[in-house]
């Protein structure tokens, strides 16, 4: 790809996996049914971009910028978001699969996950204040020394959170999810 700066462009059915994207910028671009599988996205900046039905599985994120980015129906397996550029980091996820990804130590205030699969995702030491996990599956997700103040877990399932090692002030949980807060005590809730 020859342009370093791409503004207001739309991409459809494009395979970026074999293209050189390092240090490129995409501003206000739309991507539909595109593949970024195993793509090296080092120092690529995505600003106000929208990804629909895209596959990022195995992509390399190193100082990658996601500023005001929306992912819908995307496959984001095993991504190391923890290596992203944290300056103005802002993402929203809708109906996407993020299994085995890592958000370790990231500032993710008010991030929104809607109908996402977040199995075995690492949120350790992440700042998730005011985040919303709406109808998400958090099976084996890791919350360790995470800031979960005012996080909404009410419609999500399969989370396990230790209130002693995480901040959960004013976080919201459903009655059905209380077992996920008490798992380490090996008690039965009926």
User: What low-confidence regions span 5 or more consecutive residues with pLDDT below 50?
Assistant: none
Shape descriptor reads: elongated
- Helical proportion? under 10%
User: Helical region count?
Assistant: 1
Structural class: mainly beta
Percent of residues in beta strands? 15-25%
SSE arrangement, N to C = EEEEEEEEEEH
Measured distance between first and last alpha carbons: 58 Å
Supply Rg: 17 Å
The biggest beta sheet is recorded as: 10 strands, parallel
- The tally of strands reads 10
In round numbers, the mean pLDDT is: 95
Question: What this model shows, in words?
Answer:
- The chain has 190 residues and is an all-beta fold.
- It is 2% helix and 19% strand.
- It has one helix and ten strands.
- The chain has one helix at residues 179-182, and strands at 5-7, 10-12, 25-27, 30-32, 45-47, 50-52, 65-72, 90-94, 112-114, 132-134.
- Strands 1, 2, 3, 4, 5, 6, 7, 8, 9 and 10 form a ten-stranded parallel beta sheet that branches.
- The protein is elongated.
């Amino acid at each position: 790809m020859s342009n370093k700066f791409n503004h207001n462009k739309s991409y459809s059915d494009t395979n970026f996996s074999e293209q050189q994207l390092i240090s490129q910028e995409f501003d206000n671009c739309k991507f539909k049914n595109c593949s970024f599988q195993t793509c090296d996205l080092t120092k690529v900046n995505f600003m106000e971009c929208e990804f629909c039905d895209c596959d990022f599985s195995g992509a390399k994120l190193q100082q990658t910028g996601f500023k005001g980015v929306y992912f819908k129906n995307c496959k984001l397996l095993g991504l190391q978001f923890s290596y992203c550029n944290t300056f103005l980091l802002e993402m929203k996820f809708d109906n996407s699969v993020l299994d085995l990804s890592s958000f370790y130590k990231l500032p993710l205030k008010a991030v929104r996950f809607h109908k996402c699969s977040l199995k075995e995702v690492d949120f350790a030491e992440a700042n998730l204040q005011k985040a919303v996990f709406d109808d998400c599956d958090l099976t084996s997700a890791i919350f360790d020394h995470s800031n979960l103040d005012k996080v909404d877990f009410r419609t999500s399932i399969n989370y396990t959170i230790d209130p002693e090692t995480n901040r959960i002030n004013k976080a919201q949980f459903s009655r059905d999810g209380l077992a996920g807060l008490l798992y380490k005590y090996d008690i039965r809730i009926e």
